[in-house]
Design goal:
Layout: E1 3-9, E2 13-19, E3 24-28, H1 33-43, E4 46-51, H2 57-60, H3 63-69, E5 74-78, E6 88-90, E7 95-98, E8 101-107, E9 116-120, E10 123-125, E11 130-131, E12 134-135, H4 143-154, E13 161-163, H5 169-179, H6 184-198, E14 206-207, H7 208-214, H8 223-229, H9 238-250
Parallel strand pairs: 3-4, 4-5, 5-6, 10-13
Antiparallel strand pairs: 1-2, 2-3, 7-8, 8-9, 9-10, 11-12, 13-14
Helix pairs in contact: 5-6
Amino acid sequence: MLVVKSIPAFNDNYIWLIHNNQGQCAVVDPGDATPVLAYLKEHDLQLNTILITHHHSDHIGGVSELKREFSDVTIVGPQKDAVAGLTHSVGAGQQLELFGEHFIVLDLPGHTLGHIGFLGDGKLFCGDVLFSAGCGRVFEGTPAQMWQSLQKLASLPVETEVYSAHEYTSNNLSFAMAIEPSNPQLQIYREKVNQLRAHQKPTLPTTIEQEKWINPFLRVDMPEVINSVAHKTEDLSPEGVFTALRKWKDSF
């Protein structure tokens, strides 16, 4: 199995570093090259591959500098998003090999129109689509697209590890508690997260199973979640509840 480490960047980004214990590594969504280069130097690693989920600057800002330092690096990103400098543009269903493990590309529109994810070795790198206890804002796509993307992720094996790109968990849990205050799993998880953050430790990765227990955006069929938005929408279908939740979270 591959080893994954987090490299903090900016205020709350995680650049995920994947390595194979043989001095080779890949990074996911390097918005800033400086902490990546420092980590590579400290641990004597050679950058082999860059994986990009979408075009926002806090996910691609460090690519050009990393390319200058590692001229042979493979840069894989979405064919439907405008990302300069890719060596391989990929879309839904395509596969790539990373240090002996096969990864499949998932099409995850909503946050951006061309957003993708990478799934392999029991790990999901999903950028800004699924967060722990939350989901990404809908900037370019539609709520329906984001809902379908989340449904796609919810159908993955429950043990799948979820490597989101931001440390938003504490904030997301505040919203989740407002939506489903009677959920005992939420209360347990909030305590765990509070302890981790008190020691400045990441709350990620999470798992699909964990998110099905506590993430309101994956629990739109639960009575308490439905009731929480009943005053905000007449559409209480799963997609309608999701849309109301996402709109509410935007101004929470």
